[in-house]
Amino acid sequence: MKRRTFLSTAARTAVMASWPAWLASAFAAESAKADSAADLAVLSEGYRRAQRAGKPLLVLIIPANDGDKYFRGQVFGEYLNHGSPEQLAPLLLCEVVCATMALLRRLVPTAGDGEPLMVLVETDRVPAEVQHLSETLTARKHRREVSEVDLDAELPPKKKEKEEERWRRRYEAGQRLENKAVDARIDQLAQLVHGAVMPSLKVLTQRQEQQRTHAPAEILSSVDAKLQKAQDGLITPAELELAAAQIALCAQSAPLARKKSLWTMLGIAAGQKLQKSRIPGSKWAVSGGCGTRIEGEKQNLMVACGMGHVPAKSSRFLFFFTKRDVL
Fold it and tell me: Long-range contacts made by residues 65-70, C-beta under 8 angstroms, separation at least 24?
């Protein structure tokens, strides 16, 4: 056994020995085989939901490397929680789940190699057609890594600036730079999703036809009537979900104001669906930099270090760790 590995194991054992009983129990080692079977069941059910709804499956890829899980979880959280309705709208045309590439390949052998940000799986054909959605994301910098030159360039100093004013100005400059980086990542993800889900009018028409073969006839009839009469405000949440491609296709040929309105309706519905409940394969969590609270969990590990910092738009994120990972 390598010395470094031994020390790591010994350190973890010592830390666990000092934990209270409930925490040791919560993070006890579990059966990898059992977890794998449960995770595969979650992914399989997501695939079946997509098939039944006539939608593609959008898989947010969980990195195999633990060091990458927080960053990617935060990136997805930024997009899902703070994307504009127009940026979120294409998500309503998909069923969204989270999974590792290794797990996805067990269900979809054509998933391929590598570790893209997302994989779009078409559910209307066998073998499944897939698209890898990859991008080099705008880097995330800790505030300590931002230079004074960058801060002063973002908010130039005033003449005869007092120390307190200088501190406040640079703090605000740091917030602005953080938000710019977050917004850039949101835009990158939004463009990837839009380009894969509806790259052309032809593809969007195909998605509408696929969804129409699965949606209840009464839903289709109701949506058709409302769209023809421009009664968009009467479209129900269930109709938005079951006829998203139909509504998106209508928006493409609508006047600009109506197009924006329809896209906003789709985006709000997508946001509500994904923000208010767990995305299969993950959990929502909140962190201010030192402590992490997993939503829906009664017992959470909080570390009061007083040293951490997380940008406001990154504080709610997708938690990708299993109990074995945390251990």
Answer: 66/321, 66/325, 69/320, 69/321, 69/325, 70/317
Q: What are phi and psi of 283, to 5 degrees?
A: -135, 150
Domain count, the chain: 1
Q: What range does the domain containing 237 cover?
A: 19-139+180-326
Cα 117 to Cα 68: distance, rounded to the nearest angstrom: 11
Cα(45)–Cα(274) distance, integer angstroms: 17
Cα separation, 230 vs 176, in Å, equals 40
Q: Which mean pLDDT values do the consecutive 10-residue runs of the chain (327 residues) have?
A: 38 40 41 71 96 97 91 95 97 97 95 96 94 90 72 78 82 83 95 97 96 94 96 96 97 96 97 95 85 79 55 88 56
In a domain, 162, yes or no: no
pTM over 0.85: no
